Amino acid sequence: MSYSRLLGLLRLLRDLGGKADVAKISEETDMHADEILPILAFSEMIGLISIDEGDAKLTESGINFLKQGHTGRAKYVRDKLMELKVFNEILNELKKKGSLEKEDVMEIIASKGGFCYCSSLEEAFNCLIHWGVYSGLIEYDREENLIRLGEVNSK
Amino acid sequence: MLEVDRVSKYFISDGSRLDVIKEVSFSLKEGEFVSIVGPSGCGKSTLLRMIAGIERPSSGRITFYGKEINSPDPRISMIFQSFALVPWLKVIEQVELPLRARGIENAKEVARKWLNLVGLSEFEEFLPKELSGGMRQRIGIARALAVEPSLLLMDEPFSSLDELTAETLRHEILELWKSAPSLKSILMVTHNIEEAVLMSDRIVVLSRRPSTVIKILNVDIPRPRNRKEEQFYNKVDEIYSLLS
């Protein structure tokens, strides 16, 4: 579930008059519901859409998100992620220890009941890393398998 | 800017001649976005490769600012359907590569600027396999635009992406066009007629192989275009009827 998909979903909702149900989104995009649901869940979690009686509705924040550039959008996502308990704990641990191993982060995700309705812990980890890196909150060193604070936090 | 003048292309296969393109002519002016549409196998990509200077026409001429294209021109760059990334190079290195090949000294700085413009600044140390299809194509876009081309060629650039990702990148290409001062025009090959109508000023409609130009249509719909508007789907219908 990527940044481009998220933007595509918001733009589609806007073009459809601000709201649509999963069946309509699926029809418009030729994508299966199981591909669409995680994007809806993440969008709702960070306040870009609301789910009401089966319809996904673009919120005021969602409309503004579309109007912003990449930097403004990354800041919005960063602010929202920092409100989540799972990110809070990861950031606190990183501030204490300097770095965390992948397994440490997965344990934190598991202790919070997962992330963004992902079906496996591995998928949840990848999703969290993607959005954490995108927003500048964390950095991920693939070679050493270590998660560190992003530039935004280390200043 | 670009003139394609009675260009034909044939290949020899098992001793027999296969005519792919037959006397195709069209032009591209500065400031234009032109798409080429046509049935599968009609030679759209071959035509683009000839414009890129990777292949030569069997007959006819292709000129760019009055000069015949015989080899790749540094003022023309290309975005590929398959992204064409080097698997072992990090994101930043992918964008630096063509810059270094051209001897640009501040290649890293320029690459960073373009990664920032395509929203990948935080991912510069990642490898392509660690990124989604949309992010990989963002690298392809950054790499193509970092060399400051005058003409951008796009060969089915969104066809291997899901529709939500593709739609985002279609809009972003149009936005980036405004922020790339050297980029004058874009020429895209696509089999997606809605995509062509969404993005283009003009559309060159090609026939089945050996392909000829059926018609060149103007798309006079103001931007940003909405697929739900009557004007939009009337234009789509017009192209479908030309091809059927």
UniProtKB/TrEMBL annotation, chain B:
InterPro entries given in the database record: AAA+_ATPase (IPR003593), ABC_transporter-like_ATP-bd (IPR003439), ABC_transporter-like_CS (IPR017871), ABC_transporter_ATP-bind (IPR050166), P-loop_NTPase (IPR027417)
GO molecular function: ATP binding; ATP hydrolysis activity
Pfam families: ABC_tran (PF00005)
Key words of the record: ATP-binding, Nucleotide-binding, Transport
UniProt domain ABC transporter: residue ranges: 2-233
The organism's place on the tree of life at top rank: Archaea
Protein name as annotated: ABC transporter ATP-binding protein
Source organism of this protein record: Candidatus Methanodesulfokora washburnensis
